[in-house]
Amino acid sequence: MNESNKSADGNAIEAEQHNKLESAKALSADVHELRIEIWAGLAARYEGTRAQLEAEGVIPEGTVWPTGTNRVSWESAGCGFVLRRCRAPGIRGPKKIWSDGDWWCLDIDDCMGHDGIVQREITRRTRELERFKYLQTARGGAEFKEQYSRFLKARHDKRFQAFKALIPALAPRRGARKAT
After folding, report:
1. Is 43 exposed, middle or buried (0-12, 13-18, 19+ CB in 10 A)?
2. Which of 14, 20, 64, 72 has the fewest CB atoms below 10 angstroms from its CB?
C-alpha cells in the first residue's frame, strides 16, 4: 500500500469517527433534557444535570452536592428534599458506570404531611358527593340531559367527526381493535 492510499484511508477513518462523535452528541442532547414528574400533587421529581437543576432554581445556594452514591437531604417550607445521582436516560449497566456522572434526581415530597393529604381527599370526595346530590335535583337533571343531548348530537355529526379525524390526538389509532 502506498502513502497516498494510507493517507486517504486515514482521512476516511477520521471523518467516520467525527461523524459518529457528532451523532452521539446530537443523541445525548436530545436524551438529556430536564425531566419533571409530578405524582398527584403528593410528590415531584426533577431529573437533569447540575446546571439544569440550578437554572430551574430548585437547589438552594450553598448546597453541598453529594459525592458518588451519597445523598443530601433538607427540609424547607414543610417539604422534604433529597438530592442524589441517578441513572441517566439511555445509560445501561451497573451503578459504577453512572455513579460519578452529571445526572441528578431531586425528590420533593411530604409537602402536605399526612393530615394535609387526608384533608385534600376529604375535600375532593365532599365535592364529588355534592355534585351527585345536585344531579338528583330537577335543575341538575335538566343540566345533565342537556349535556348528554349535546354529546349525542356531536357524536352523530358527520362533519364534526371528520374534523376530529384530522387531529392526531383525537383520531383513532390505525390497527386499533374495536370493542365488540
Report:
1. middle
2. 64
Question: Long-range contacts made by residues 96-100, C-beta under 8 angstroms, separation at least 24?
Answer: 99/68, 99/69, 100/68
Contacts of 34 (CB under 8 A, 6+ apart): 46, 47, 48, 49, 52, 53, 56
Q: Which of 41, 180, 50 is nearest to 102 (CA)?
A: 50
Ranges of H-type helices in 48-167: 50-56, 95-98, 113-135, 138-156, 158-165
pLDDT tens digits, the chain, 180 residues: what are they?
555 555 555 566 665 555 544 444 444 444 578 999 988 767 899 999 999 999 999 999 889 999 988 999 998 877 889 999 998 888 888 888 888 889 999 999 877 666 777 787 888 899 999 999 999 999 999 999 999 999 999 999 999 999 988 888 877 777 666 665
CB 46 within 8 A of CB 56: yes
The residue with cell 441517578 is 86
Q: Where are the beta strands (DSSP E) in 40-103?
A: 43-48, 71-76, 79-85
